[in-house]
Each structure stands twice: as C-alpha cells, then as structure tokens.
Write a structure and sequence with these properties.
Layout (H helix, E strand, L loop, with lengths): L20 H26 L15 E4 L2 E4 L4 E7 L2 E6 L5 H10 L7 E2 L4 E4 L5 H38 L4 H34 L2
Helix pairs in contact: 1-3, 1-4, 3-4
Length: 205
C-alpha cells in the first residue's frame, strides 16, 4: 500500500516565534504522537491483505530467530513469482519451520506449504463477503487511529491550559490551541486519505 514517505508534515505556524519553549515542546510532542498514530495505522493496514500477491502482505510477520522476534524480511528472501503466489526462501534452512509457524500465528488467512527448501503461499482470490469484512476491519483501524489523534489533542490542550494558569500569555495559549486543532484536522484528513486508498485496494477485483 501507499506509504506516507512523501507526506509533507504541516507547516510550522509563523506565530510560533513568539511562543515559549514549553509551548513549543507541547506542539512538537503532539505532532510526534499524531505521526505515530499514522505510522501505526499503515503498519496495521499491511496486515489487511487485498489484491494480488505482494511481499507487503507478510510485513507484519515476525520470526523467532534465536530467541529474538525478527521481521520475516530479515531472515529470508520473499518473492512473488505470479499474482497468486508468494515464496519464502530462508537464509538458513533450519528457519523453515519457525517461519512457517510465524505465518500461521500471524493469522493472515494463509496456509503456508513447506517443501523442504522454500515455503510457498497460495494467495486465494477474495470473495465479495471477505472484501466487505476487510473493509469493515480497515474502517475500525482508521477509527482507532483517529481516537489516537483526538487523545493527543486533548492531552495537548490540557497541558496548554496548565501553562496558562501558571502565567503564560492568554494570546500565546490561544494560538497554540489553534495550532493543535490545525494539526488534528491535518492528521484526520490524512487518515481519511489512507483509508480511502485501502478501501479501493480491497474492493478492486
């Protein structure tokens, strides 16, 4: 799926020049928290498979590699020979069974086949009912991300109010609250964009 690598973060308001370091810290922390909600949503969306076979479908799979939970991509080569097949070639042959187990635990709806050399996954076409279920799941993940954004806004406003009580200028605090709302609006819109892209991907036959 499309990531936000080229996503431009909101432009810093020029009025920040007059703000206190405490306000700056609150705004920076809020933006970092909201960015985290976006990153988490994208990670969750990688686990909602749709369309043709892709290595990204296994992006959320972690393998027990000598006691350490390691991304599947770091212990194997993942290839897509055709639109319905994923092959996984471990760098170490003794990792075949741990990889097979990890794919099953990830509960992606796949039935991996181990032929002794590679693991083969046949990606079944999605039924209409399954597409609707995945769309519903995607909407749920997006709503959770929005809750994270709103919680960050609430926390920021609470901290700003506290600073105002401690003597920070009312005008500065009001400007900071406005910027928190601008950040909130920007990130909520971004979530809607990511969700719309995912829904289109899921429903594409």
């Amino acid at each position: 799926m499309e990531t936000t690598n080229n996503y431009q973060l909101p432009t810093i308001n020029q009025q920040r020049k007059t703000m206190t370091e405490e306000i700056e810290f609150i705004l920076d922390s809020t933006q970092e928290s909201m960015s985290g909600s976006i990153a988490h949503l994208e990670k969750e969306f990688l686990n909602i498979r749709a369309g043709k076979a892709s290595p990204a479908m296994l992006g959320g799979v972690f393998v027990d590699y000598y006691g350490s939970q390691t991304p599947l991509s770091q212990v194997s080569n993942i290839n897509v020979p055709d639109a319905r097949t994923i092959t996984i070639q471990p760098y170490e042959k003794n990792m075949l069974q741990p990889i097979e187990k990890a794919i099953m635990i990830a509960n992606l709806g796949f039935n991996p086949m181990n032929n002794g050399d590679v693991i083969i996954i046949s990606v079944p076409p999605l039924t209409e009912e399954r597409r609707r279920d995945l769309t519903k799941q995607a909407k749920g993940e997006a709503e959770d991300a929005k809750i994270g954004i709103r919680n960050a806004r609430q926390e920021a406003n609470k901290d700003i109010k506290k600073l105002e009580k401690e003597g920070t200028s009312e005008d500065i605090c009001k400007t900071a609250e406005d910027e928190v709302q601008n950040l909130t609006n920007t990130y909520i819109r971004k979530i809607d964009e990511i969700l719309a892209h995912k829904e289109a991907e899921i429903m594409k036959v």
